[in-house]
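Changelog-adjacent note: as of this version, every example in the card shows the full chain rather than a window. The one below runs 236 residues end to end.
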Amino acid sequence: GYYEFEGVVSEMISDYDGTRSVSSSFVSNVFAMMTLALAISGVSSYWLIASEFYLNIGSLGIMVIQFAPLGLVLLMGFGYKKLSSMALTGIFIVYSVLMGLSIGMILLMYTASTVYTTFGITAATFLSMALLGYTTKSDLTKFGNLLYMALFGIIIAMVVNWFLQSGMLDYIISIIGVLVFTGLTAYDVQNIKKLSYQVQDGAEDTKKMVVMGALNLYLDFVNLFLFLLRIFGGRD
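Full-length structure tokens:
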């Protein structure tokens, strides 16, 4: 979750009394913004590779590309209540560009066929789980809490393996990562649907929630893609 934003979402969902209808425009706007962010990242990744820009950025540039996106996510999460919807949108766009550059650096290690195949599998998996999350009548709250605990464990394991450099542990982490983000996709989409019962179309808070909801889904998609990429390999 993302700090204050997640708290607002949880409070609004818990207040839902079942008498309102789904705001289809809210849900579609979240997916549209998430798709736009992915497209921006895709163009950014392609440009980095095609222009061979990565050859000229130096070690400092690489560090900025790697760590700046994390800083922007933290800024959006902690500053959710204070920042305007326009500011959040601007930060999200910059974040998408930087993430595209970061992903591009990773894609350099893999063959083009592996990247395309993995993207297709990721898209199919994401869409299937998004549909499941939107249509299921089962409450995924407890399921989601377990997944976030597992995600925390993955982060710790990745830090440990940074020192160990174990190929087997990396493979296990990648498999668990795929399972976690596959499940989180369904969980996050269900939360977005629940949230759509509470929002007021056109309101400032609603616009801000669209951005943060899109960020959640963007992270689900990108992390699912990267973990699948590590499993399928195909490095040059």
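Structural remarks: Residues 1-8, 10-19 have pLDDT under 50 and may be disordered.
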